[in-house]
Amino acid sequence: MKPASVYARTASTNSGTSLPQGIDSATSCGRTDLLAAHLGGHTNNGPWLVAAYGAGSLTGSMALTARPSHREPEANTVSLLGVTGALIALCAASPDLILAAIGFAAAGAVSAAQFTASLAVRSRYAPPGTRAHVFVTMAGLKMGCSALGVVLAGAALTLGPRAALLMIATVILAGSLLATAMRRRKR
């Protein structure tokens, strides 16, 4: 595989998924206090949703350590992004705090698996002599896209908790569809 195609492949997969990942992270740490209050709880229950996301992420990471995924990493990254978007949408539709916490925990677990898959994309498609360069370049791209995602999520939070989560889920799902289309075009 030519170095240019390696960069195109890893850049398209990582940029197609990093903006939504940034939005996903901002969602988990954003105004969960408003969502908790909206679901019949109190604003003090918001940190429980963030903790559920973190616990899910930790659990997902530990599960992947015990049983690594053997799926093709590029397809895995893109499909897990779609699953994350669907879970965030379910959180928005949740009728109570307990179900929202379960949804946030599941989204955290899937997000951990997606991050691991995105690292595997870089590792698999980078030729041995360029791995360090590919990892550093993609890490910078990911940070920039994630920061933009946080800004967009912050703006969305002015819509109210449910509407913001639905908008964020829509952007995440759009990122998954875009990455899927980019993968199909490459074939």
Concise account of the structure shown:
This protein has 187 residues and is an all-alpha fold. The chain has helices at residues 3-29, 32-38, 46-66, 73-93, 97-125, 131-156, 161-186. Helix 1 (3-29) packs parallel to helix 4, helix 4 (73-93) runs antiparallel to helix 5 and helix 4 packs antiparallel against helix 7.
What does it look like?
With 187 residues, this protein is an all-alpha fold. The protein has a single domain, classed as Up-down Bundle (Growth Hormone, Chain: A), CATH 1.20.1250.20. The protein is built from seven helices and no strands. The chain has helices spanning 3-29, 32-38, 46-66, 73-93, 97-125, 131-156, 161-186. It starts with a helix and ends with a helix.
